[in-house]
Amino acid sequence: MAFLIVNHPDYAKTVFGHGDPKGLATYKFLIPWIGKGLLILHGPKWFQHRRLLTPGFHYDVLKPYVSLMAESTKVMLDKWERLITLDKSVELFEHVSLMTLDSIMKCAFSCHSNCQTDSPQGRRFQEACRLAHQHTDKVIKERKTSLQDQQELEKIQKKKYLDFLDILLCAKDENGAGLSDEDLRAEVDTFMFEGHDTTASGVSWLLYCMALHPEHQQRCREEIKEILGDRETIQWDDLGKMTYSTMCIKESLRLYPPVPTVSRLLSKPITFPDGRTLPEGSLVAVNIYSLHRNPAVWQDPEVFDPMRFSPENLSKRHSHAFLPFAAGARNCIGKQFAMNELKVALALTLLRFELSPDPAKPPKEIPQVVLKSSSGIHLLLRKLP
Asked: Is 381 a domain residue?
C-alpha cells in the first residue's frame, strides 16, 4: 500500500475535498472503546448518521450548554484554589480532562456525575471515562422506555433544553428510521471521546500559551472583564464578543492542534494540483501539526502571534492553511461546541488566576491520536485579588 504524508494546504485541500473514508488502520484500536460512530463510519451509513446528528450541533442546542460548561469549569477552578496553597505548579491535563468529561456528561445525558470531586485519590480520568461508558447503556435504555410513554415524551419535549441523547433518540431519517441501540451507543461514546479528550488537549495547551505570553494573557483578561462587567459568569451572548481572545485561541490551535494528524484511505485515484497522482487504495495522512508550522505557509511559524487571525490577515490566507477541525465533508461536527468550551474555560480561568509556566517542568509534546505532553502541562497559578 502506498502511504503519503502531506503538510501543504494545496495537498490538504485536495485530500479533504475527495470525500474518502478515514484510514481505519489509524483508528481501529478505538473501535472496542467507542464503537462505530461518525469517527469510524464511512459510506451511506456515515452519511445517514451525519445527517441525523447535525441538528444536535445547531446553535439553539449549543446555547444552554454554555452555563453547563461554566459550572464544570468553576468546579475545576475551585480545586485549583485549594491546590495552590502548596506553592507548587499544577499539572493541568488531568484536571482539565475531568472537567471536560464532567461537562460532556451534562451536555450528553443531563447527568451531573460529580466526577471532578468524587474521584478517589489516584483515580485518573480514564477510570471516570470507563464509568461514563457503563452509564451509556443504562441511560439509553431508560430514556427509550420514557419515549414510549406519552406523558414522559411530553415532559422531555418541554425540558428547558434537550441534551445530545434526547436529540439522537428523536432523530429520524426521511424513511422514519432512527438509530439502533448499538448506533446510539457508538455515537454517544464517540461524542464523549471526541468532546472531552480533544477539548481537554485544546484547553490545556491554550492555558500553556497564555502562561508563556503574559502580554496576550493580560489583553484577553481585560477584554473578558470589559465584556462581563460585574458578572462572574459567562453567557452565550458573550462568546461572540471575545474577539481578541478568539484570535489567541486560534493561534494556540495552530501551534498545538488537538488532533495532530488525520488520514484518508483513497477510494479512487487522486491527482494533486502539481500533477502528481496516487492510486486507489493509498493511505494519505494530513499532518496538521506540520502544516500549521510550515514556513512556506506561515511566516515565523514558531512565534505565537494572534494577529495572524485578524480579519485582514485571514482574507489573505489559503483556505486550508489552518485545519484544527480538519475540512471537507468529514470535518469535525463538534467544532462549535469545542470553540465554545475553549472560550468559557479561558474566560473563567483568566478572571480567577494569573498563569505562569513552570521552568522546571516544560511540556514534551507527544503526537498521539490527541496531542498531549509526556511530562504533563505544569503551570504556576496565582489567585487574583
From this structure: no
Q: Is residue 43 part of a domain?
A: yes
Asked if 99 and 76 touch (Cβ cutoff 8 Å), the reply is yes
What Cα–Cα distance (Å) separates residue 237 from each residue in 63, 258, 346?
9, 26, 16
Return the CA Rg of the chain. Answer: 21
Q: What is the residue-wise DSSP string for 184-233? A: HHHHHHHHHHHHHHHHHHHHHHHHHHHHH-HHHHHHHHHHHHHHHTT-SS
Question: Is 50 a member of any domain?
Answer: yes
> pLDDT, tens digit, for every residue of 233-291?
999 999 999 999 999 999 999 999 999 999 898 999 999 999 999 999 999 999 999 99
Number of domain units in the chain: 1
At 361, is the secondary structure helix, strand, or coil?
coil
The rounded distance, in Å, linking the Cα atoms of 280 and 263 is 14
- pTM score, whole prediction: 0.90
Asked if the structure places residue 3 within a domain, the reply is: no
Domain limits at 333?
A: 33-254+328-375
- Where does residue 229 rank: exposed (0-12), middle (13-18), buried (19+ CB within 10 A)? exposed
